[in-house]
Specification:
With about 220 residues, the protein is of the alpha+beta class. About 20% of the residues lie in helices and about 20% in strands. It has 5 helices and 9 strands. Strands 3-4-6-5 form a 4-stranded mixed sheet, covered by helices on one side. A 3-stranded antiparallel sheet has the order 7-8-9. A two-stranded antiparallel sheet has the order 1-2. A hairpin with a 7-residue loop joins strand 5 and strand 6. It starts with 11 loop residues before the first helix and ends with a strand.
Length: about 220
């Protein structure tokens, strides 16, 4: 059982316990559950006609999420994780798919959406309401739509539209920039550390973008 405050989502896990596999029905007909997509989809999700996903940005971030769930990461690399996502989307077969992506995972996710839908558009966006925090929304549809996005042919989108953020913006260090360079990127997450000047900090995973960030801890 994890005891660190960061790993317990500030106590929310204990205050609002959710059992894996249990389906919670809301008054408006919505349903919520916790499921591991590498093990398969809940049946009710296969009825969706529109899907929005915000997958982990890298193998390191994915492993960190499994660490928080007190589980062993079931994939050996990020491409294997993307293959699981694609298989799930194929099973659902929605009319429309939206995928939030970041610089670290766009090169895997854009081709995935293009392989599933005949019409693909990409929208530039930001997170944290900060112009420097760039992300993109990939939209895949079965039918052509007239509004928004770039041209349907992704090959015509210049790479300059996807300028890489600095390590500071991405919330990561040089050493943690690729799967090959990080043997265990989750080992230092949610661990309270002390600097030489006596101040404290902790590396965490952003719940919105999946990037690793450093937060200051006040005594």
């Amino acid at each position: 059982m994890t005891s660190q405050k960061g790993l317990r989502y500030d106590g929310s896990i204990d205050k609002y316990p959710i059992t894996e596999g249990e389906i919670y029905s809301l008054g408006n007909g919505s349903k919520i559950t916790i499921a591991d997509i590498t093990l398969g989809l809940p049946e009710f999700s296969k009825n969706a006609d529109c899907v929005f996903i915000d997958p982990a940005g890298s193998k390191g971030v994915l492993k960190a999420y499994y660490t928080k769930a007190e589980k062993q990461c079931p994939v050996d690399n990020f491409d294997e994780f993307v293959a699981h996502i694609k298989r799930c989307i194929e099973q659902i077969n929605p009319d429309r798919l939206f995928v939030e992506c970041f610089y670290r995972n766009k090169k895997q996710l854009v081709p995935m959406v293009e392989s599933l839908f005949p019409h693909v558009k990409i929208y530039e966006n930001t997170y944290y309401h900060k112009p420097d925090c760039k992300c993109w929304i990939i939209q895949g549809t079965k039918q052509a739509e007239e509004y928004g996005g770039f041209q349907d042919d992704y090959s015509q989108v210049d790479e300059e539209n996807f300028e890489a953020p600095s390590n500071e913006e991405a919330g990561e260090s040089e050493e943690a920039s690729s799967d090959e360079e990080e043997e265990d990127p989750a080992k230092d997450l949610f661990v309270l550390k002390e600097r030489e000047d006596g101040s404290h900090y902790m590396k965490v995973v952003c719940p919105y973008c999946g990037n690793m960030e450093t937060i200051e801890i006040e005594d």
